[in-house]
Design a protein that fits this description.
alpha/beta, Rossmann fold, 2 domains, 7-stranded mixed sheet, 12 helices, 9 strands, elongated, disordered C terminus
């Protein structure tokens, strides 16, 4: 005898909770929704009226109980206002990165209000393209550029950035976009930053996120964040804005690195749980102020 949808969801919730998954009911509903082509709320409504369990549900729940990431099973990750394609070989975007995007969006809107036309934004180490796609979606006046080293992640980013007019290149964040040196208005990065001995506790991250996207290099995990900072120094115009995600325990070190690199107005940004997860700063303005170097001229060309 087939189970009802309500019975199946309750069973799945118990199985996932026993597997150590905190959001067991949410995942149970989302997996059912994936199979049925319904939202979480629609699944709950169907369960109330006695709908049947969808075919393949037990198998999908068993995969999730093995701590296969939910996003790998559904093929999508929800990030701000977007639904991104994700899967094996690419870092699944996390909610804390949404705060980084908000800092970029706020800065770009201020620049636009101040008269910077079509500001250049560079995303260093774009991964799935979550940051670049969000910026392109929320600030369509911006010209977005993104770089990713991993061939697999680059392919996922290309899928997520299709139709956004974002310039996506495969390459190293250390050397990317030399043609934009000194001309960018905003640089953003969520680089790998985990130290080598700080292996993630969650099996989803430890076993399924690629090492290239996790470990930042060096004893403190900050080799790649320092490289992103050096690229920001190279890319930004006077008065340009840089924001970078990092671990909570790295906030002090990152702030000191920005100040040592000459950034001013260095400030930390907290994620949705109140943890210090990003730091921002600004390149000192030139003699003619923050508009120097990155604003388009009357002919539409970027000023040098």
């Amino acid at each position: 005898m087939n189970r009802s949808l309500g019975q199946a969801v309750r069973w799945a919730e118990q199985v996932l909770a026993e597997a150590g998954i905190d959001a067991a009911r949410t995942d149970a509903l989302l997996l059912a929704g994936h199979l049925m082509g319904l939202s979480r709320g629609e699944v709950e409504a169907r369960a109330i009226i006695g709908a049947d369990e969808p075919a393949g549900y037990a198998e999908l729940v068993a995969e999730r109980a093995r701590r296969i990431p939910l996003q790998h099973l559904t093929g999508v990750a929800h990030f701000r206002y977007l639904v991104l394609a994700v899967g094996p070989g690419v870092f699944v975007p996390r909610p804390e990165t949404e705060t980084v995007v908000q800092a970029v969006v706020d800065e770009l809107r201020e620049q636009l209000a101040a008269g910077v036309h079509r500001p250049h934004v560079v995303d260093l180490g774009t991964g799935s393209g979550a940051i670049a796609a969000s910026v392109a979606h929320e600030v369509p006046q911006a010209r977005v550029h993104a770089v990713e080293l991993s061939e697999t992640a680059h392919a996922w980013a290309a899928e997520n950035l299709r139709g956004t007019r974002t310039e996506l290149v495969r390459g190293d964040l250390r050397t990317a976009f030399p043609e934009l040196d000194g001309r960018c208005d905003v640089v953003v990065s969520n680089p790998p930053y985990i130290p080598p001995d700080a292996v993630p506790r969650e099996p989803e991250a430890r076993e399924h996120d690629p090492d290239l996207a996790l470990y930042g290099g060096g004893e403190d995990g900050l080799d790649l964040p320092r490289a992103a900072l050096a690229s920001a120094v190279r890319l930004l115009r006077p008065g340009g804005f840089f924001v970078m995600e990092h671990a909570e325990v790295q906030a002090g070190a990152v702030a000191r690195a920005l100040r040592a690199a000459g950034f001013v107005d260095v400030v930390g940004h907290q994620d949705l749980t109140g943890r210090d997860r990003a730091t921002a700063g600004r390149r000192p303005a030139g003699p003619q102020g923050a508009q120097e170097g990155g604003q388009e001229t009357a002919t539409g060309e970027v000023g040098e």
